[in-house]
């Protein structure tokens, strides 16, 4: 159900609700309920529903046929461009993303070191949010992810919310327009703590570092993923614009 006390706009909440249904319960070309039916089911205005449907269409989740309604797109992804997507499941090559689970290792709000302050344009008194999550496939550790967030944009995130809703669900509620993404790849050996968390042998991991910038060219998110490619196939995709 939608929450009127939530700081997120109702249409953003409705986008997330319908997207969850599309991802989990619907198939390509399935017809969605009419705008009137959605209004009645979620007790929202027609304007809210239209904003929601426009957003889903613009992001490639649905398509419309005049006089017939709205239908699920053939691309059932969390985004049509996974480079901008922080949801780890968008990069999973398997058929069922529900096979992937996450375990919160730590959540911190702390002062950034000088090099990071300069990189993210932080004042000395500004904090960052640092989160580490262990990714599991069928309960087997496959990746260790560390995310750094610019606190001034993400101060609504706290440890209790992370434990209750999960990192990916919270990330999908972030409604900040992004302009640029930089992604770097390298292979490196895991340190002893990482080996212990990933229950791995002394092997090299694929390290994917993603830096995301908003429309003001501010670096606001850094994600570093250490992936055991012997256990998980990691993918990126992008849809060419017409």
From TrEMBL:
- Which GO BP terms apply? negative regulation of DNA-templated transcription
Q: Please indicate if the UniProt record lists Cell cycle as a keyword.
A: no
UniProt xrefs under InterPro entries: Bact_HTH_transcr_reg, Chorismate_lyase_/UTRA_dom_sf, Tscrpt_reg_HTH_GntR, UTRA, WH-like_DNA-bd_sf, WH_DNA-bd_sf
Keywords, comma-separated and alphabetical: DNA-binding, Transcription, Transcription regulation
SMART domains from the entry?
A: HTH_GNTR (SM00345), UTRA (SM00866)
Q: In terms of domain of life, where is this protein from?
A: Bacteria
The protein here is known as: Transcriptional regulator, GntR family
Tell me yes or no: is Aminoacyl-tRNA synthetase among this UniProt entry's keywords.
no
Q: Which residues form the HTH gntR-type domain?
A: 8-75
Q: Which organism is it from?
A: Enterococcus faecalis TX4248
Against PROSITE patterns, the record matches this protein to:
HTH_GNTR
For this chain, one GO molecular function annotation is:
DNA binding
């Amino acid at each position: 159900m939608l929450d009127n006390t939530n700081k997120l706009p109702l249409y953003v909440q409705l986008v997330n609700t319908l997207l969850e249904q599309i991802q989990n319960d619907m198939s390509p070309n399935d017809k969605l309920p009419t705008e009137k039916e959605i209004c009645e089911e979620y007790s929202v205005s027609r304007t809210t529903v239209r904003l929601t449907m426009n957003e889903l269409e613009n992001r490639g989740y649905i398509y419309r046929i005049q006089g017939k309604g709205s239908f699920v797109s053939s691309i059932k992804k969390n985004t049509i461009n996974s480079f901008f997507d922080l949801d780890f499941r968008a990069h999973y090559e398997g058929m069922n993303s529900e096979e992937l689970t996450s375990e919160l290792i730590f959540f911190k709000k702390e002062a950034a070191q000088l090099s990071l302050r300069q990189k993210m344009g932080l004042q000395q008194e500004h904090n960052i949010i640092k989160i580490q999550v262990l990714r599991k496939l069928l309960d087997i550790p496959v990746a260790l992810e560390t995310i750094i967030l610019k606190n001034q944009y993400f101060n609504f995130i706290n440890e209790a919310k992370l434990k209750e809703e999960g990192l990916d669900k919270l990330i999908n509620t972030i409604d900040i327009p992004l302009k640029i993404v930089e992604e770097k790849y390298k292979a490196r050996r895991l340190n002893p703590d990482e080996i212990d968390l990933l229950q791995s042998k002394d092997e090299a991991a694929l390290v994917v570092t993603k830096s995301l910038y908003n429309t003001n060219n501010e670096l606001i998110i850094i994600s570093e993923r250490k992936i055991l490619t012997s256990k998980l196939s990691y993918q990126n995709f992008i849809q060419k614009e017409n």
